[in-house]
Structures are given as structure tokens and as C-alpha cells.
Amino acid sequence: MFTSKLSPVWLFALLVLLGLGLAALVLPAELLTRMSHLEGAVADRFWVMRGFGLGLFALALAMVLDRRAGPAGPAAGGLVVLSLLLGTTFLMFCQQMSGWWIDDSGITFSYSRSLAETGRVTFRHDAAPTEGYSSSLWMLTLALVHFLGGDIPLAAKALGTAFGALLLLTCLVLVWRQTRSALAVALTGIAVSTSPFVVWSSSGQEHALQALLLTLTVLAAATLQSWRPVVALLLSLLVLTRPETPIIVIAVFAGALWRSRVRTGLFELPANLVLAALPFAAFVALMTWRMLYFGDPMPNPYYAKASASSVSGLFNPFGGGWQYVLAGLRDSGLILLLPLAFLAAPQGDRPDRMVLLTVLAGHMFFVIWAKGDWMGEYRFLMPATGLFVLAATLSLPGTKRFPSRQGLCAVVSVILLTSTVIQLDRFRAHPTTPLAVVSEIGWNFARLSRQLDIESPVLAHHDAGGISYDRSIGLVDLGGLVDRNIAKHMQDRAFLETYIFEEKKPDYIFGAINFAAASGFTDAPAFERDYVPLSFPDLPIMESSLSHIRRDRIREAPGIRLERDTDGRVTKVIVEQLGT
């Protein structure tokens, strides 16, 4: 495809890439301090620089392969080495996040643990059945891991990374089949390995599995003659993986009907019906099981989070979910791929193109309707990363002068690699709600309860993952994910006042003024009457805008200082030394 020798410009670019890549591996601290915003030890960030260096090496190799390619494209051996470099780049980036799990993953972990140990789908052994997880398939997978003796968090991290790597490989194969360009392959691998995809592949949640299944639908449509049954099966698995999948199923089914109408003048309903029927059967089975087991067709996260969603937001391109999408593309650098798609000529009548665009449209419809997500690095955009990258890089052969796009591929790749280093460094400095932090908070309250001789203590807190998985202390989930009553009444102050202060009566209330606390239930007279401010001056991790202990649980104890008013009434509890 490309037989020309390396020009002076390309040779200079090649030497620069190799030099920077070598410097990233040999002198990571010097480069890192100039590229990113550091908080903490530079040595803790060497993995991201190793990924950066290997990514530059992969890009340099792709330049050589394309410039010296024969009529059939680059040599197979060179492509294998290129794929290994791109895969290792992704793994190095994931290794940078090896010590972090998102706290929400602990909710699924707790259900998996209960199912494996007791055969009941509950967040802890003594709780009533209620669905607080978002992915049935992910929960069942981790339950099997625990049943077989595996460690759930480590398995979740390993499986998420493995699924991310498989998605990367899938994208590389698809792009190679269409472009026969090593630089297009390199750009694809580097673009997929941007910060949102790396972070949420490493989070312990199901998003890498979801992303892989979405991308496999495109692979099936691109490589199989009878693609519809396989795509329908993958969509059925997606129904069990994420609750928004029915939107994607509708989009794919409508797209298939439209494609048939354009090709033959008929909708070909019998041939396309499997695309809707099989996923619909999986959906009905899941809903039926929910009704029979939980007594409700919808999971707790739906009630806890759906109140913020809005159809009207679909028509506001300057705010809400649209702003979330644009910010995610900008911060990750993926917005640079948009021109590649727009420069392309029509791609013809290919089923994989139809599946790609309809799956992407269905997913983005959900993201915009849900107004995005509050967590860092754009969690809701992550599953569509591969689809978005493919929509751009698969368009390269449709440009009028594809060889002239090679330089653009190289420049965009360098920018994306640099952006990934910066974004991963920032996220590592300020990660979203680490599971380990919430676990420590739960254990600290358990230790305090032993100091105060509180039996069977209960904590009301808006983060439930680490506490429910460790089972260190009883929990009232102010986030509503493992408490259906709170999930359904997240903004109902009157209900929450009665439910929390008269029914649950937690020993501690802790956290931020968000989720259920945003309703204002802490302004109730019962809160001021029954609860006293609680502080841990020597434990920064316990600093909070909402930290209280129930008044009737207060007692004199070593390491505990009580402040009183002139009438002798306790006005504050200060934990100067936490017990063991």
C-alpha cells in the first residue's frame, strides 16, 4: 500500500518519537513533572510513563510499517509486534490504577458474596432481598468467582482489564480489515486507551464487559454472513449486563428495518425480527424474575437515579447530557477524531456500519437522557469508546486522499497519548470515591462503637460499597442503592424524616449533604434533638459536613472528649483517640 522510503520529515519525526519513548522509560520522573499535575510521589506514577513510552514506540513502528509496506499492506510479523505494543500500553495505563476500585463496585461485590455464601441475592446475609446492583451478569460472574474460592475485588479488576484488552484487540482487527494501514491501527489502539476507558476498565464495575459486548456486535456484523442471530445473542447478554440496553435494541432493530427498506424496498420483518425477539425474551425473563424474587420490576439504582433524567434534555444541545458528552470528548482528546469521520465518503451498504451507528446512537441517547454521571472520567461514555473510535478510524478509507491522512493519524496519536498521561495523573491524585476509603470509614465507626459499647451499631451513609462488602457495621444507605425505601423517596423529606428518625434510628449519620440528605431531612427538629455533632480531629479521612452520633449512644470513654453547654447537655463528641 505504501512503498515510499522514509522522507527526511518522517525520519525526523521517527527519531523524535523514539527519543521521547526512550526518555519516558529511562527518565520517567523528568518527563512526568513537565507533562502533568503531580500531587504525591513521582515514583507512584511510573506505570503511566511506561505506557506513554510504549505507545510512542508503537506509533514509530506503525510509521515504518506503512512507509515500507508492499501491495498487500505491512508484514504480518510487524503487525503482531504493533498489536503487542498497543496492548501493553493499555495494560501499563491500567496498572497505574491497580490500587483503586470505585466504591459502587463494592455493592455488586456484596451481592455476589451473599449469593455465593448463602444462595440469597441480598447485600448482606441478614437483609431482605433487594436489587442494588446494576448488572445481573456481572454479579453472577463474581458470585461464581467467590464460590470457586477466588477473591472478588481482584477478580473484578483482572476481568475488567481482560475485557478491555479484548475490546482493544477487536477494534484493531476491525480497523486492519478495513484500512490495511498500520498507522490507522496504531491510532485506534491509542484512542481506545484514553483515560475514560482505562479508568473504568480498572474500576471493578461491569463497564468493560458492557463495552466489549457492544463492540462484538460490530465484529459479528462485519465478519459473519448470518450476523443477525449472533448480534441478537450479544444484545441479549447486554440486557443482563446493563438496564439501558432496551434502548440500544430498539435502535438496532429500527436500523435493520431501515437498511432492508433501502436495499430491497421491503422491511424484511421476518429476517430482522430476531434482533428484537431474542433480547425481548431475555428482558421479559429478567423482569419476571425480579417480580418473583424482589417484588419489583426495577432495580434500586433506577429509582435512586432516574429522577434526574429528562426527555427535554435531549433537545438542549448546550447543557445537561449534551454538555457531559462534549466535555468527555474534549477532556479525553477524542474530539480530535470527529474530523476523520466527517472527512469520509459514504461507506456503502454494510451491516457492520449500520450496527455500529445504531448501537452508538442508542447508547448516546441514554447518556444524554440520563444527563451523564457525576463520577470522574466520564463513566457513562466509557462503554461507547470503542464504537466512537471505530466510527472515525473505519472511515479513513473513505477519504479522498487516504495516504495524506497518515500524518494526521500520527499527530492525533501523540496528542491523545499526552492527554491520557495528564488525565490519568489527575484522576489518580483525586480518584472518585475509592472503595478502600469507604471501607476504612466503616471500620472506624465499628471501632468507635466498641469504645462506646454499642452493640449492633448502624451507620447512615451515602456510600454503601465498601461498608456492605466488608460488613463492618450495619448500614442505612442514604444513596438508596441497597435501600429501596430511600431509593423510591430520595426527595421526599417527610418520608425520610419518619423512616430515618423513627424507624431506622441509626447510631451514626455521616457523609455529605447529597442524595437523601439533599432533601433537607437533617433540618428536622428530630435531628437536632436526637443527634450530636461528632468529629475526628486526627483522622482527615473522617472529615465530613455531616457527622453525628445519636444522643442516647454517648457515654464517657477513654479517648472520647465531650463538650457541654452551661446546662451540662452534650453539644459535641470529639474522638481524640480511636480504639482498636
How would you describe what is shown here?
There is one protein chain. With 580 residues, the chain is mainly alpha-helical. 59% of the residues lie in helices and 6% in strands. The protein folds into two domains: 422 residues, no CATH class; 141 residues, no CATH class. Strand 1, helix 22 and strand 2 form a beta-alpha-beta unit. Helix 3 runs antiparallel to helix 20, helix 4 packs parallel to helix 8 and helix 12 runs antiparallel to helix 18. The longest helix has 28 residues. The termini are far apart.
Strand order of the largest sheet: 2-1-3-5-4-7-6
Give the CA-CA distance, first to last residue.
69 Å
Helix count, DSSP H or I runs of 4 or more residues: 25
- Please provide the count of β strands: 7
Shape: globular
Strand content: 5-15%
SS-based class? mainly alpha
Query: What number is the mean pLDDT?
Result: 91
**Largest pleated sheet:** 7 strands, mixed
Helix content: 55-70%
Number of domains: 2
Residue windows where pLDDT falls under 50 for at least 5 positions: none
| Rg, nearest Å | 26 Å
Topology:
Layout: H1 8-26, H2 28-35, H3 46-67, H4 76-96, H5 103-118, H6 136-147, H7 152-179, H8 182-192, H9 195-201, H10 207-223, H11 227-239, H12 245-264, H13 269-272, H14 274-294, H15 300-305, H16 320-332, H17 338-342, H18 351-369, H19 385-393, H20 406-429, H21 435-451, E1 458-461, H22 465-470, E2 474-477, H23 484-488, H24 493-504, E3 508-511, H25 525-530, E4 531-535, E5 546-550, E6 560-564, E7 570-575
Parallel strand pairs: 1-2, 1-3, 4-7
Antiparallel strand pairs: 3-5, 4-5, 6-7
Helix pairs in contact: 1-2, 1-3, 3-4, 3-8, 3-20, 4-7, 4-8, 5-6, 5-21, 7-8, 7-9, 7-10, 7-19, 8-19, 8-20, 10-11, 10-18, 11-14, 12-14, 12-18, 16-18, 18-19
